[in-house]
Amino acid sequence: MSARIIDGKALSARVRGEVAERVRALKAQGITPGLAVVLVGEDPASQVYVRNKAAACTAAGMHSRVIPLAADTPEGELLDVIEALNADPAIHGILVQLPLPGHIDTGLVIETISAAKDVDGFHVSNAGLLMTGRPLFRPCTPYGVMKMLESENVSLRGAEAVIVGASNIVGKPMAMLLLAAGATVTLCNSKTRDLGAQTRRADVLVVATGKPGIVTGDMIKPGAVVIDVGINRLESGKLVGDVDFDSAAAVASAITPVPGGVGPMTIAMLLVNTIEAAERTQRGSAE
Ligand SMILES: Nc1nc2c(c(=O)[nH]1)N[C@@H](CN(C=O)c1ccc(C(=O)N[C@@H](CCC(=O)O)C(=O)O)cc1)CN2
């Protein structure tokens, strides 16, 4: 292995420490930032993520409210919960943990969250603002990836960036952020012909498909920076990314591990978005 390991755990701890300082400053002005997380159902992975989000919030000095709802909660009831949170002045950020049970329209749920409290950055208004270069909230995972690239001093101006996976929550916003930073962006999807021909052009390669091992070392340009967004639990219980780590690390100049890479940054950037939402409220009330 020759690649440098990009330590998401260490960077997320730094970011969370900076957020904690901003929380202290805001509290001194009488505002406690508050995050509400709605969890529908009992998906074990979602339960872990929600618990970790709440714990990170509390550790940073924020107010955290977790709202667990049964898997068969009617859609209308979930929308009522969101409306109540939209109107609650103690709550500055709202997120609904995904995925949702099949009987619920995810798009409708996201659009019901007030765009000003949409700390996931998934609301169509926030997606539009990001696309037009005026971001309010950047989606946490791609935002975390940008923070990792910045911390590694990766030069993005004019760089070839290739993203594998075109989801609304990672791939598409990732493309917008890399484009805004001056990269030439290629966004691959499940229909892309000859994926390796695309990935081999990448100076920065971001993989977010949920398919373990879809990218192997022979698909990577020597010296590329490889960001693995995938989190896949194998039957053995082992957690792996979308990139075959050993073969990729032999070729790349830097690579994120799984676990301990992008995942912890997702939670750190959620705290950043929440403190920004609360600071914005404070500025609004001071004007
Ligand atoms: N409303 C949202 N739902 C989902 C999001 C999101 O950003 N907003 N992203 C993912 C899940 N996710 C956050 O919610 C998330 C996934 C993984 C991690 C993480 O820290 N992973 C650890 C490993 C944890 C484990 O042992 O399972 C790591 O990679 O080191 C944090 C957040 C889908 N849903």
Task: Write up this protein.
The protein is an alpha/beta fold. It has two domains: 28-124, Rossmann fold; 140-263, Rossmann fold (3-Layer(aba) Sandwich), CATH 3.40.50.720. It has helices at 8-28, 44-59, 75-86, 106-112, 124-131, 140-151, 171-180, 195-199, 245-249, 262-286; strands at 4-5, 34-40, 63-69, 93-96, 160-164, 184-188, 204-207, 225-228, 232-233, 239-240, 254-255. A six-stranded parallel β-sheet has the order 1-11-8-7-5-6. Strands 3-2-4 form a three-stranded parallel β-sheet, sandwiched between helices. A two-stranded antiparallel sheet has the order 9-10. Helix 6 packs across helix 7. The protein is globular and about 50 Å long. The ligand Nc1nc2c(c(=O)[nH]1)N[C@@H](CN(C=O)c1ccc(C(=O)N[C@@H](CCC(=O)O)C(=O)O)cc1)CN2 binds next to helix 2, strand 4, helix 6 and helix 10.
Task: Describe this protein with a few key phrases.
287 residues; 6-stranded parallel β-sheet; Rossmann fold; multifunctional enzyme; 42% helix; 3-stranded parallel β-sheet; alpha/beta; 10 helices; THF_DH/CycHdrlase_cat_dom; binds the ligand Nc1nc2c(c(=O)[nH]1)N[C@@H](CN(C=O)c1ccc(C(=O)N[C@@H](CCC(=O)O)C(=O)O)cc1)CN2
